[in-house]
Automatic annotation (TrEMBL):
It comes from Brasilonema sennae CENA114. The lineage of its organism: Bacteria, Bacillati, Cyanobacteriota, Cyanophyceae, Nostocales. This is Flagellar assembly protein H. It comes from the Bacteria. Keywords: Cell projection, Cilium, Coiled coil, Flagellum. Residues 179-213 form a coiled coil.
Length: 301
């Protein structure tokens, strides 16, 4: 699994982590949805974008990197980037994860951003963050873009400079697990699992965080099977607990609900009425109308 995929999953499930990384209150995440955006008529795809949530009629259709290719329903529910409504306080955040040296990283990033701004002409201001494992990876020339860095419109984030994991919020400590070497990752992961059980009261969030830790461990130990990793960290026993099973069922129900929203436009297209779709999918008529309006808005962009 690619490192950026881990981060985009993390930002999709725990958007507050991104805002903690850039020094903003984690509560800011409530005003955003995490998406990926195609830059039309180019080969560019901006994989990580936090869009102000009010720009979307139905936040449940927000997408993460790769979702459109994995599910045809998801592709039909792509969130419209931004409307031309009055100026919003919340800026757009573009996110880039870079774990290898790339002399073209900033040239590519700014090309993608400016093409997006030209095509969509959003009323919101914008900022960008580039996440590096260490400062030594950040070697690209900035001379053409230095004003964006001095003004802090663009912020590089170096994970190894965030501090000791034990003193960090559990969300940020989980991010740091990605850059731990194999010798220290085992101990750090066990500490994170203990902290998750002690500090996270929400069943759903605890399950998601434990799954994310497990995913990172699979990435860091590619020669080990999922079962071996679960046994090493006691995750197999944890998954049998009532708490975890209830959280799993809750997550499964939420995922089913999102799939229903994505199916609405297809059923309407084959001739079903709003009332028939609502009855078939066990949704309210208003929810079906919202999903249909969102699809119509996307197609008009």
């Amino acid at each position: 699994m690619k490192t950026d995929s881990i981060f985009y999953r993390l930002f999709q499930e725990f958007p507050s982590i991104f805002f903690e990384l850039i020094g903003e209150p984690p509560e800011e995440a409530r005003a955003y949805q995490f998406s990926s955006v195609e830059v039309k008529q180019t080969a560019f795809r901006i994989d990580g974008v936090f869009l102000p949530a009010k720009e979307s009629d139905n936040p449940s259709t927000a997408i993460s990197s790769g979702d459109a290719t994995r599910s045809p329903w998801r592709a039909l529910a792509l969130t419209a980037a931004l409307s031309t409504s009055p100026l919003r306080v919340n800026p757009i955040y573009f996110v880039e994860v870079q774990f290898q040296e790339d002399p073209q990283i900033y040239a590519r990033l700014f090309a993608e951003i400016f093409l997006y701004l030209r095509q969509n002409q959003p009323q919101n201001d914008w900022r960008a963050a580039v996440i590096f494992p260490t400062r030594t990876i950040d070697t690209a020339d900035r001379k053409h873009y230095r004003e964006f860095f001095t003004s802090q419109r663009v912020s590089p984030i170096y994970l190894d400079e965030l501090g000791e994991a034990v003193s960090l919020p559990i969300s940020i400590a989980t991010v740091k697990l990605v850059i731990e070497n194999q010798d220290t990752a085992i101990e750090k992961a066990r500490e994170l699992i203990d902290r998750t059980q002690q500090e996270i009261s929400s069943q759903q969030q605890q399950r998601q965080l434990l799954q994310l830790i497990e995913t990172i461990l699979i990435y860091k130990f590619p020669t080990m099977s999922r079962e071996e990793i679960e046994a090493m960290f006691g995750l197999s026993e944890l998954k049998q607990t009532r708490f975890y099973q209830e959280a799993f069922e809750e997550g499964k129900q939420e995922g089913t609900r999102r799939e229903k929203f994505r199916t609405v436009p297809l059923l309407l297209r084959v001739g079903l009425t709003v009332e028939q779709v609502a009855r078939e999918l066990e949704l309210s008529v208003e929810e079906v109308r919202q999903a249909a309006q969102q699809q119509s808005s996307n197609e008009s962009k």
